[in-house]
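User: Can you help me understand a structure? I only have the sequence.
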Amino acid sequence: MSAIRVSAVEYLNARPLVHGLEARSDLFDLQFDVPSRCSAQLHEGAVDLGLIPSIEYLQGRDYRIVPDVAVASEGNVASVALFTTRPATSLRSIAVDSSSRTASTLLRILCSEWWDIDPKMVKLRPDLPVMLKRCDAALVIGDPALFLDYESQGLDKVDLGDEWTAMTSLPFVWAMWVGRAQALEPEHVAALQAARVSGAEAIDEIVNANCADDEEQREVGRRYFREHVSFDLDERALAGLKKFYAYARDLQLVRTPTELRFFDSSSV
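Assistant: Let's start by predicting it. Here is the structure, written out as tokens:
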């Protein structure tokens, strides 16, 4: 069995899902990138498997999902948010961090279905001062959103995970392992599921390795893993994922059918 090419999101929240995979060079050739590049590499065929934003699953007709593994949240996620000085219901323009289509799709759903607004969306690099100079609010994702000291800048933080759960009473699935139908053997699937388990047990090690020089950041990271994110793609998470896809389809943000298909791990 040859090693498959894998692209994973470089943010802190993905680290528990790749814990120990670097040591499995017999199964995985691993690289890291921003969400949009992980997705592009999978769509282009440059990698066999990607830990990609959940909306990107709909871009491939022959994709499969690794079962039982995801980056999910129920309520406040802390790492995907609007930063603003105005109430969400009065926003006229939003600068969108273009590195993840999932967050921007969720934002459009919340604007339409929850806040009842139709703001202008402006795609910009994730540079908060520039974004807020151009627009009423800025959508920021990942580590920049998680570690931003927004209160010292006089900003409010509108957490998109919290808003989604308030609207639907369901979790939100931010990212998951997705690949082409024949790309993974059951051994690959089992190793990815085992990495999730070992990663969840190694949170302190992961935080210390990725926030090594800043105790305040380490505490934020520990709290993030304890209180905000989970890594199981269970029945409630799947219900939230299907609801997200249904909203996106109803608003014509996507057009692909939303059947969920999974890799087989039964032969391990």
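Now, to help you interpret it: The chain has two domains: 4-72+171-250, 80-168. The domain at 80-168 is CATH 3.40.190.10 (D-Maltodextrin-Binding Protein; domain 2). Let me know which part you'd like to focus on.
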